[in-house]
Amino acid sequence: MVQAKLDAGEGAAFDIQAVCTGFIYALATAEKFLASGQHKRALVIGAETFSRILDWQDRGTCVLFGDGAGAFVLEAQPAEETGERGVKASYIRCDGRMVDLLYVDGGVSSTGTVGHVRMQGNKVFREAVNRISDAMVKVCAEAKVEVTEIDWFVPHQANERIIQGVVKKLDLRPDQVVSTIAGQGNTSAASIPLAYCAGVEDGRIKKGDLVLFEAMGGGLTWGAALMRA
User: Fold this and answer.
1) Any residues with CB less than 8 A from the CB of 57 and at least 6 apart, and which?
2) Which entry of 94, 116, 122, 156 is annotated as an active-site residue?
């Protein structure tokens, strides 16, 4: 539908479902397509309407999530310019053994219903801080930089406790964090592009800055990506 509305021709178009980690998964996938030479440009969209699957009687979830959409346009660079702007590295993982920590208790293929978000908040918090931090260290190592060398940390806007837990664990500065939770809540796969856009529009993130993204979501899925703005 988006392709048709944009009159984008017959280029490949497909969904990647990894919930809150979906934008990281999609960014990693698009970057690999461009690096392979198969495609020149990619439109990566993160969009969610969590209001459709919230249990409005469950204050453990209904007050956290929001609806939103954001997008990046990626373009392949000539070989002689690969050291400049763009995605430098990505890291994605999943452990289905922890699916009961954060999931939707329904769906067309399982129950024939929409279902609602269910979450074991304290357990998700513990897993999130450790696994996100590990992913951030590994993605920076792949790009041969230290985590402390980044200019900006643009996290998935899960909640402030998780973000601050990661900041403390990796010895980052609070003023390096781009947070939109107060105004937008957790918009799942949309939260990273929305937060990045906010950082660019208010002048914080500038061309050439090194930006680190991370996310964790149902599944459990998690990942990180490093990009030169």
Assistant:
1) none
2) 156
The structure tokens listed for 47 are: 């969009």
Q: Which tokens is 113 given? A: 């219903």
pTM above 0.85, yes or no: yes
Domain CATH number, residue 114:
3.40.47.10
Q: 86: domain range?
A: 2-228
Residue 20 annotated as catalytic = yes
Give the total number of structural domains in the chain: 1
pLDDT in tens, 192-221: 999 999 999 999 999 999 999 999 999 899
Q: How far is CA 187 from CA 41, 89, 115, 165, 175, in A?
A: 25, 24, 18, 20, 22
CA distance 33 to 73: 13
Catalytic residue among 94, 159, 186, 197: 186
pLDDT of 63 reads 86
Question: Contact 205/147 with Cβ under 8 angstroms?
Answer: no
Joined tokens for residue 64: 């956290």
* Average per-residue pLDDT for the chain: 92
